[in-house]
Structure formats: structure tokens, C-alpha cells
Design a protein that fits this description.
Elements: H1 21-28, H2 38-58, E1 68-72, E2 78-80, H3 81-97, E3 100-105, E4 112-113, E5 121-129, E6 140-148, H4 159-162, E7 169-177, E8 181-186, E9 191-197, E10 202-207, E11 218-220, H5 231-242, E12 246-247, H6 253-263, E13 266-269, H7 282-295, E14 299-301, E15 321-324, H8 326-337
Parallel strand pairs: 3-5, 11-12, 11-13
Antiparallel strand pairs: 1-2, 3-4, 5-6, 6-7, 7-8, 8-9, 9-10, 13-15, 14-15
Amino acid sequence: MKILPYQPDQSGMAYSVGTTLDRFIKLKQSDFPFASGELSQLLRDIALAAKIVNRETNRAGLANIGGAFGQTNVQGEEQQKLDVIANIRFMRALSKGGEVCAIVSEEEDAVIDLQNNSGKYVVAIDPLDGSSNIDVNISIGTIFSIYRRKTPIGSPIQEEDVMQPGTEQVAAGYVLYGSSTMLVYTTGFGVNGFTYEASLGEFFLSHPNIEAPKNGKIYSINEGLEKSWTDGIKDYIGFCKSEQLSARYIGSLVADFHRNLLKGGIYLYPGTQSNPNGKLRLLYEANALAFIAEQAGAKATDGNQRILEIQPTSLHQRTPLYIGSDKMVDEALRRIARHKQIIPTINL
Ligand code: P6P
């Protein structure tokens, strides 16, 4: 029997299609000692749901699944049909995948117990962020965090399984349904981006080892809310304008964050007098992006502490969010700090 060693093609006749997400996950599984493949399977389950949601967002206008659903969610926000569809898709994929015991979703008032006490993981997810942009064909996204449950495998889920600070995340990521559909995630060993090739039904590695520029020339904030800003935010935005930075605000957190991550920039959603904790949610928006930001060498803070160190006290709690390039976040913090009310201590 004749045996020859495989020789990789040198002719260039067939270009390499690159590394699929599946193959990358398997290659990286060795980053986890004693990895038994459950987290890898969970990431694949999320990618599957993302492919389905991608198909449905791309054809929303044709399949009469655009527009309002006719109900409001626990946030009091009007649900879009695609919000509901995306929530169903991700919940179904995570339930069928068998690796998850509980889900926190922007679209669900309570923690969803998947009745799978052998599941090692808890997922916090915003199934479709920026959904008000769906009908006008602007980029939208999915944001997810993955935690290991704290209570013993096999026992019923408890509050401590769900109310974990962002530092406890084992993985986090987002899907950006934009001019191309991308999945960007971290498991604590750097940040990698994958672009979806619909004709093959695969995500391919397109942005290996993403590192955020330490500084940037883009700031993202809703300037329509200027009247409600604190003096510190007014000071910082005034600084951005004096430096003639570019104002870019899409109104989709994932899209604004992704652009700033790649090009350098800062996204700010401050608290206001009426909503001191701002609009964005800690568990399924801020924590995931903060984990990615820090893994890419950027920063994420609520103005007082790292986002990742905030101990959650309620499922849908909100947090101010200042996230992006290291030096830009530092400058914002410096200006916020110098306007903090310094109450003189009177020694009686
Ligand atoms: P505003 C979308 O509703 C979202 O949660 C983020 O995606 C986005 O950055 C922000 O709210 C926009 O909020 O108040 O500026 O319209």
C-alpha cells in the first residue's frame, strides 16, 4: 500500500476560506483546564440562534415581522415583533442545547428556569438591542453574558446563580446585524471577531485578537439629553468639542460600541436627574461589553467603579455606562471627578 504525507496545496488554485467559528472554539477549548466541551457547545448554540435571527432581521420587511408587537416589556418599552422573535429563538436554542440552567433576558420579567439543573451555565441576554432601528434598516445587535452557576450542579437554581458581578463572567459577546453580520466574543483570553458568510451558513474568523486603540477621535452620546447631564459630563463633552472630535451616535449600543472598539472612541450613556442610573442594563448589556472592552485593552466604568465590579441587586437594574478607549475614559472620569460635590467635613 502506498502512503504519502499530506502536502498543503501550494498552487493557490483554491483560496483558503479561513477558520470557522466551530473550529476556532474547538481549538481554543484547551484554554480551559478540564474543559469538557460544555462551554464550547453553549457558544455554538448561541451562534446557531444568531444565524436564525440574522435571517429574520434580513427579511423583516418582507415577512411582515417588522413593526411593533403591541405589548411593552418589563422595561416599559414597546416591544417590536423581532424583539419577541429573537427572544424565542435564543431561549429555544439555549434550552435545547442542554448546557444552561437559567436565563435572564431583557424580554422576560423573571429569571427563566430551564428546568435543567444539570446545566452548568447561566446566560444573561439582550436578544435584540436597538430594535427601534429595525424598521429603518439601521444596525441592531444581540448582547450576551455567560456565567458558571454558583450552587451545586443538580440542585435548583438560586438567586446567587444569577446575581453575579461581571468579573464572574466566563464568556461574553455580541452579534452585530449590520452591513455584514458579525459575532465578537471573549472567554477571557482576548477578543476575536467572526463574519457570517450566509452562502455557507458559517461564521469565519475575520478579526483575530482585537485590540482597542488607546485613544480615539470619536465620541458617542445622545446630545438631545444635554439638559439632563451633570456638570462633569458637560465638561467632558465640551472638551471633546474643543478637541474637534467626531460625534457619532447610531442609537444602537452594539453598533456604536463595535465601531469605537475597532477605531478608538468612547460611548457614554450617563445618568440623569430623573434616571440617576441611566438607561442601559447591567446584567445583559453593560457587563458583556465591559468584559470585551477590558479584554481588548479598553475600559468600562459607571463613573465611580469598573462596570465589572458592580454587585447586582436586581435583575433589570440600570447603570450609567462610559466605555471605550483607555485614555478617553480616563479623561471623562477626571472631569466627572472634579465636579463631584465635595462636601466639606466640618470638625465640630
Ligand atoms: P437613546 C437602544 O434602545 C439602546 O438600549 C441602545 O442600543 C442605544 O445606544 C440607546 O438605547 C439609545 O438610547 O435614549 O439615546 O435613544
